[in-house]
């Protein structure tokens, strides 16, 4: 029997509401095809020979994993170079008046730093609960430990791949290895990604719009205007996904028509060669996101709860820099304190992050640290280098190190299992029986 997606019911099963009939049509494109009479549908990621255009085959996912290993090595090299360049840049901006590590430890308010660490734990716990919620919605409970691993897999592979593209395929692969069908694993990752982007875009639009005047804290006019312009460009690029998903939910036919027209135009002017292949991939991508419409229509309360959980990440992500700052510089900085200082730090952090959003290095490494340092030159004063380093560690480097630990643990566990199986095969059956009778 084919494993059934609880969100992909037929109109007869759910009363045949018009919105749900659209959802049924969307289900057809997510890999949930009906099994022929007397046959069996294969819902898992397929072998390379059997995979359809636009789908993640098992062979493709394994190749991605090998490429991700190379990305990890490149990421480590970039991180090393970035830390060195940050130190040099901070010395230049502070004119050699940088605080030493000893000065930092002596002046640090550790309670505020502990609050920043606690907020990171809350953010990671909220990310884990998203997968727990979606797993139960789709009728597949992995358990909290594995949900934590799914969250870490996503963060780790996003951190080591350009434009954060590596997380979802590896999450799908992990789900598949744990017995989940290909359509359900794709649906979970796509729904989570769409809702997350929607929440991030909503928070960023409000904070960046209301707080644009806070950019006056950036002393250099050229730097200030560059951060302003690049920040909104980065916001626009990131807002494309939630806007596109919204159009898929409410206007699926016009979206399909525009895509077909766009592909044909590119083919006609000789920019692309194989129009059918590209169209199939884009259509599959649209179909993957179309599952979001099923989720909104059929599970509105679950959608609202998931959206609420997704709000934690952007809010906490841009509150953490405030607690790191007051831990190093005190509760009053440049005449600001409390909510005013916190909002200023949040605005500057968000503009700096979005300003580097289109840089194709893993995790925007190098660019985001540099822009962040330029934005906080006047505020962080002599601890600028340490401030940027600790902030970046709590929101980026830590996922790289945790991901390395996860992979090392997996390799050790696999070696132990293989040795155990080898020892079991090496013992003759007669000796096993004798050993069992002696123990009895």
Description:
With 440 residues, this protein is mainly α. The protein has one domain (66-420). It has helices at 11-14, 18-27, 58-93, 101-107, 110-137, 144-159, 167-177, 182-210, 221-250, 252-268, 275-298, 300-329, 338-355, 367-375, 377-380, 384-426, 429-439, and strands at 332-333, 336-337. A two-stranded antiparallel ribbon has the order 1-2. Helix 3 runs parallel beside helix 14 (367-375), helix 8 (182-210) packs across helix 12 and helix 12 (300-329) packs across helix 16. The model is unreliable at 8-55 (pLDDT under 50).
Mean pLDDT over the residues: 77
The major sheet is characterized as:
2 strands, antiparallel
* E-strand count: 2
Which residues sit in consecutive blocks of at least 5 with pLDDT less than 50? 8-55
**Count of domain modules:** 1
How much of the sequence is in beta strands?
A: under 5%
The quaternary structure here is single chain
Order of helices and strands: HHHHHHHHHHHHEEHHHHH
Query: Which class of secondary structure composition applies to the elements?
Result: mainly alpha
Query: What is the CA-CA span between the terminal residues?
Result: 42 Å
Global morphology? globular
User: Which percent bin holds the helix content?
Assistant: over 70%
Helix count, DSSP H or I runs of 4 or more residues: 17
Strand order across the largest sheet: 1-2
